[in-house]
Amino acid sequence: MNKHIYNELITKIRTTKKSILVIGDLMLDQYIFGEIDRISPEAPVPILKAKRIENRLGGAGNVANNLINLGVQTTLIGAIGNDTNGQSFLDLLKTKKIKSNLVFKKSDRTTTKVRSIASNQQLIRQDFDSNSISLNKNDEQKIINQITKNISIIILSDYAKGFLTVDLSQKIIKKANKNGVKVIADPKASNMDKYRESFAITPNNKEALLFTGIDNNDNKHEKHLIQLIQKNHIDNLIVTNGEKGISLFTAKSKKQFPAISPKQVFDVSGAGDTVIATIATALHVGLDMETSIQLANLTAGIVIQKIGTEAINLNDLESYIFENDLNDNPEKIFSAEKVFEIVKILKKNHKSIGFTNGCFDILHSGHVTYLAEAKKQVDFLILALNTDHSIKKIKGPLRPIVDEQNRAKVLAGLSSVDAIVFFNENTPIKLIKLIQPDLLIKGNDYKVSEVVGHKEIKKWKGEVKLIELIPGQSSSNIIKKINQSES
Questions:
Q1: H or E element in which residue 297 lies
Q2: If we measure between CA atoms, which residue out of 295, 340, 328 comes closest to residue 314?
Q3: What are phi and psi of 399, to 5 degrees?
Q4: Any idea what the Cα angle at residue 316 is, between residues 310 and 319, rounded to 5°?
Q5: Spatial separation of the C-alpha atoms in residues 304 and 308, rounded to whole Å
Q6: How many other CB atoms are there within 10 angstroms of residue 200's CB atom?
Q7: What string of DSSP letters covers 303-340?
Q8: Residue 318 resides in a domain
């Protein structure tokens, strides 16, 4: 996903007046985080010393949470129990500002999944399912009445907990089609008839196999899937398959979209919710199906790097694009405007910014050690590099020995340097005021009062940090020795 698509997505989300309706099974995801340091004397099982408990929206609630985090106007419909966990679920909806005027208190208890976690590893999951959800005709009519032309997309989030019966699902789909509203279903039924005439369904690979009744024979399985969507008048079948990515089946073709490889996989819980919410969001703002799936692959790759059921958000997307921008520029050389843009994103994600500057004419071990120590102080280190013109004004017409492009290229090879920006003036004060770093970093051959920007940095509550230098190491000394050896 490039920056152009991201900007288009954001602009259209902010300007569209329509909303998305999420209908389906609601559940509370509860996480018990703790530590294990001994085995129980009662049985050969570990003892989890609980540290904290977190409640999160699960099921259709997590789909709605993803949509809200992406900036989409969202209404949630489902049923909970008249119990403590049901109230916790409602409190979370209120906190997230998700419209929920049609969350029925129907079952004797709220479906709840309790996960115990230690050292980022899930130890056990306990499921407490509701016993009954029956909706009466009046309840169903209230749901159908929500389907108006102000809705762009309806997501049916089916976890096979009883809320989305075949009859209700078909009533929703028929009313939606009549109003020009797209229905996207995340299915759990083994029969595709339940989702007949949907715009799209998003099973995982196991669920898709259940539709066909065929064991893993790709050729027969795929042919049968296409026949099934033709028979049931489903426009798009979107099959998620973990690290293999996403497959899009239509009545005439199949297309494969490779997964975005995450840096590390912590938890795949809720990834399917993120996929359907992302596809719905992209379609909601007018992006095409292929772009929507590519975007969903990206967001799924982001959320599985988090612990537990976590929703995607716009900051995650922006950070990913920012990292790609940096990776696309291995020379690490940026304009002042681009560095400012990068810093804005980093600060939004609570990263610390360091700023140092210098000529760095003839790189030596003192420079390398200094920059490595500077990097230890911050998350992101910006090096402001004097241009050749600037150095000539300061050090005379015979300097620099190495031109600015070659100096920058050598510095970019250091892992300690995250970004390089040139400045043409005698001092980098304009850059310092623009970037507003957390730390101004210089060598201890300066006093704090001599560091350019030491007064200004106090205005945004930053500070000056002096790094100890290796005695005797300087470019001037190296140049002097070279001149002496040549004479």
A1: helix 289-303
A2: 295
A3: -115, 150
A4: 155
A5: 8
A6: 26
A7: HTTSSSS----HHHHHHHHHHHHHHT-TT-B--HHHHH
A8: no
Cα separation of 30 and 367, whole Å? Answer: 51
Same domain as 382, residue 247: no
Could you tell me which residues are beta bridge partners of residue 478? Answer: none
Whether 127 is catalytic is no
Q: Where among 282, 312, 342 does a domain terminate?
A: 312
Length of the chain: 487
Structural domain boundaries enclosing 336: 329-486
For residue 383, the cross-strand partners are: 356, 420
CA-to-CA distance for 343 and 379, rounded, in angstroms? 11
Residues 308 and 337 placed together within one structural domain of the fold: no
Q: Are 186 and 201 within 8 A, CB to CB?
A: yes
User: Residue 403 maps to which CATH number?
Assistant: 3.40.50.620
Tokens of 195: 């989702």
SS3 18: coil
The answer to whether the beta carbons of residues 281 and 67 sit under 8 Å apart is yes
Give the Cα-Cα-Cα angle 224, 230, 235 (nearest 5 degrees). 115
Residue 41: partners with Cβ closer than 8 Å, 6 or more residues away:
none
Average pLDDT estimate for 107-114: 91
In tens, the pLDDT along 449-481 reads: 999 999 999 999 999 999 998 876 666 666 666
One domain, residues 63 and 198: yes
Active-site position among 83, 158, 273, 418: 273
Is the pLDDT confidence value at 294 over 70?
A: yes
Quote the pTM value.
0.74
Q: Are residues 338 and 218 in the same domain?
A: no
